[in-house]
Amino acid sequence: MNTFWVTLSASVIVVLLSIASLPLLNNNANYLKYLRRSSSEVADLVVTNGTIYTSDDSLPFADSMAISNSRILRVGNYSSIKKLARTLTKELNLHGKIVVPGFIDSHVHFIPGGLQMARVELRGVNTKDLFVEKIRKAVANVKEGSWLLGGGWNNDIWGGDLPMAAWIDSVTPHNPVWLARMDGHMGLANTLALTLAGISRNNENPNGGAIIRNNDGEPTGLLIDSAMKLVLPHIPEASVDERREALLRASSHALKRGVTTVVDFGRYFPGSSPEYPWDDFSDVYRWADLSGNMMTRICLFFPMETWSRLVDLMSKSGRVLSQWIYLGGVKAFADGSLGSNSAFFHEPYADDLNNYGLQVVDLDSLYNMTFSSDKSGLQVSIHAIGDRANDLILDMYASVASDKQIRDRRFRIEHAQHLAPGTVARFGEQSVVASVQPDHLLDDADSASKKLGCERAERGSYLFKSLLTKNAQLAFGSDWPVCDFWISSLYVSVSTRFPVNSFVMCFFCCLFQVADINPLKSIRTSMKRVPPGWEKAWIPSECLCLKDALNAYTISAAHACFLDKYVGSLSPGKYADFVVLSTNSWEDFATEVFANVEATYVGGFKAYSIRPEDKSE
């Protein structure tokens, strides 16, 4: 009997020692370095008494962590962390709250998002008086002479009367105004905007559109369809100051949602100038970095046709410009969108049997640019939504990688929404990142069934779980502020009617915006997959667990843009970017996924708090 207990006790001790030594087995060099130095290090901040999910498989959970010089010093239990505290060390007591790594949004258009936030939102306005009041308040914050833009109005909900320029002229005497209806087929211009556009009773209706007139033949301010082209080209490009303000606005919004790093694909879409992202890099991001106005970390992607320019920049400055700005790679487009029937498929659309979608780029040209970009060491990312577009890009990636130069490429496909049978496995086999946006499925569930047929849609749409099962790298993002309509208008509608600048594109986005930066909502979507008005999940077999969804917004997202050495997990040596959530029950969080962001820390400093009176730790 004594021998039995001795043996058992020894076994228990071995197990306990093994568990205690798990952090030592971490193969992260930074971890070992920081651990060796820990005896002489002093923490600036210790975070205690919480449930800390690290996104680091070597130590998934802890209750405390220490931070020094903006980086994680140690993660573990309180007894090991308190040793690093001194008189001047501050303490953040979580009172049992959950902490997760700062979220990384893998696909945004950051400055367009900030520009869109300044627009007048008219959705839900149900009276003429409220319509006018919204415009009056908005114009008070706009400089004299600047355009006031907005949209989303629906005259049906206030009785059907169409708005007129006369409604708003008295409150907008010094600012041209353009306000689009919710469907995008009609817009209201005030009299000053009509004058700037040269629209009078003498104008004839353009083909495919109409200028609405009163009984005297005078324009009322309403323009329908192609008549909008008379006004839209007069909307000026956003100024440098407006874009700088947009960055600050977008950054504050992201921090409220717990996002500490974004992968920014910029003001670049089919039909727009490839110079826009470069202008923003020099005029906005460089300015913000040098002036101390950066609040979130940014990984920048540039139009693929400018790949050689990015190579030159990297050769001079490297990939890491500062703790805030990272040069990512290049992006191109393979097809359009599902909503516009321009996503490229192997089979025709169920509601348009002669249409397979659009291949929006010449494949030979795309291959040559991809090959050159890859050979120069750039990361390549390509937009592909339809199953045929995804197969074409995977084929091209396989061909480019067949040059026998083995290296860590991390090719990306943005969206990867609809995949043919057998395609899922190729992502894992080829180590291609699937950069996906969970919230898009909320709107696509109904439209995909109509456009593709129920069986085909459910067989190949938003296959998150299948991709992970086949060892694909999954990175979550929002595509903020883009929606399906924007992609449609970019290639199919707007750019074929008149030249447009990125400011107009941002305006169109404002009308139909459905994408928002909201990782907690997206995580819930990926786990529940229940579209609005539905009672059950769409394709329930593709629902994720909380761990997989969190990782797709943290460590996997960091790996997808080569930032996993710096962010993505709460591991020693990485930046101390983390989010405090409103819940203190991991079980409830994993089941219902209901939580809010209470505070966001960047580099160990509080960048956002739901309680404005809180001072930075």
Automatic annotation (TrEMBL):
It comes from the Eukaryota. This is Protein LONG AFTER FAR-RED 3 isoform X2. It comes from Nicotiana tabacum (Common tobacco). The lineage of its organism: Eukaryota, Viridiplantae, Streptophyta, Embryophyta, Tracheophyta.
